[in-house]
Amino acid sequence: MFERIAIAIAFSPRLQTLLAEANRIQQLFDSELIIIHVGSHTQEDNMKMESSLKDADLLEKVKVIWESGDPAKRILSVCKKEKVDLLVAGALKKEDFINYYLGSIARKILRKADCSVLMLTEPSLKSNPSKRMVIHAEDSPYATEAIKVGTYIGKVQSTSQLHIVREIKLYGLAMSASSERTEDELSEIRRNLVNEEIQIVQDILKELDTIGLKINIKVISGKSGFELSNFCNRTKSDLLIVGAPNRKMGIFDRVFPHDLEYIFADLPCDILIVNPKRKNNG
């Protein structure tokens, strides 16, 4: 699924927690692991890195790549050169020490990366499997892949609840409401729209191994970013999985839908952007 994983680190207070997460993610996907450090590279740095990797039980399991220059550009360059499938990085904390957001480096990575990206809000030294996950099965050509990744993680980590979220197409309901219809007719139209979205997800799940998973298909409406974030908070989810959007014609950066930009500004939990494009392109 993810054969080559890279994690971007710095010599910060969260170094050991990120390395501990990297070790667990490597085992989860049985992958090769690459450590990317953008910054100074002195003998002291080498010793610090070796000591940190030894403490994380990674000394003999990883390839360390040292880079200098613009962090986002260098990280993306390494991912491309090394044919990385999944890049892991830590999200930044807001000043109120409660909510998280993606800084400029993370946003550049999300828009330009040709691989999947996992942003961790609270990396931990101790194993903390995802117990409640949300998969946003919308606004992406990779929605099906997001569901596949989510169900795989759910089974391996014995997730207690997996929510798959679709969005009701309100324009269809609005068009129906603009004509002369009774309240009962409008209610029936809405039920049909909801059932159509549920059926789309059920058809995908039929092709996957979901035995033992407790799956809830949720159909939301309204401002989807706001509703999705609220749903993650209400369900106390620790991982949100979404498919990466297409790059727009003539633009090299991805343009994320407004709903995802809303979530990036105030992360409710860890977020995994699934983008299998590199492997699809060979």
Automatic annotation (TrEMBL):
Pfam families reported for this sequence: Usp
Signal sequence region: none
InterPro entries: Rossmann-like_a/b/a_fold, Universal_stress_UspA, UspA
Residues of the UspA domain: 1-119
SUPFAM superfamilies: Adenine nucleotide alpha hydrolases-like
CDD domains registered for this protein in UniProt: USP-like
Stretches assigned to coiled coil: none
Family statement: Belongs to the universal stress protein A family.
Cited PANTHER family: STRESS RESPONSE PROTEIN NHAX (PTHR46268), UNIVERSAL STRESS PROTEIN UP12 (PTHR46268:SF6)
Name used for this protein in its record: Universal stress protein
Organism field: Fulvivirga sediminis
